[in-house]
Amino acid sequence: MRMSRLLCLMALCWLAGPAQARGAVSLVDDRGVEVTLAQSPRRIVSMLPSLTETVCALQACERLVGVDSYSNWPAAVQALPRVGGLEDANVERIVALKPDLVLLAKAARVTDRLEALGLKVLTLEPRSMKDMERVLGQLGRVLDREAEAAAMWLQIDGGVNRVAAALPASARGKRVYFEVSSGPYAASESSFIGETLARLGAVNVVPGSLGPFPKLNPEFVVRADPQVIMVGDRNAVALAGRPGWGRIDALQAGRICVFTPAQGDVLARPGPRMAEGAGIMADCLKDKFK
What we know:
alpha/beta, single chain, 12 helices, disordered N terminus, five-stranded mixed sheet, four-stranded parallel sheet
């Protein structure tokens, strides 16, 4: 069924011809706002690394004329003008790039100001796998890359399945705490990271009812007593110094997976490298539970 759908999408894309011939595209973004584009955009500013990566993976990297401060993959985007981030977007620089579309996170503070200046804004912020599939489809429509978007989702989903299938039984069923930043903020069951962990057979100690990336009371983690902790290298050093954390099973047994900044980028961005992120988490579990 999926293959038939993909073939149909490919045929429709071929029949549609060049992007300029398709006419207007309307879609509802993550604010619930309907955004209409007269044609597929040719000059795009992306203000979220995951969206930057997705645009490039959809073979539209050449349309990017500016990116946020943190977009660093693929290598081609590193030479593009930087326009700040969620908190410090440089409006003047964005306007000077003359984009016909600005891609933003829902939490971006600059959205209203850019719209007031007459720029087209599309807010897309995937937090779950279902969100990622939806955002891929939306960007596929906007970029006239619908077939590529459908194929990419099959590749991501299939890649995660293959990683999960290769994970030994000894590494499954373990209680995991995944810290996304100090605070501490964690990836819960309802986040795309939590969903990936679930597909790997792990038990996330942070319930989805708290939201995708909740800020926790450190005592919560002590009570949850995870068997393994996944954390970025910047936050790993301070773990043992947190009150009561020395009692956590993962710290006592040395089962802490510390990710490099490059690995952290892969893990934290819901985009085309999600299967690679699943592989990083799987390697952690295999290493700690041989």
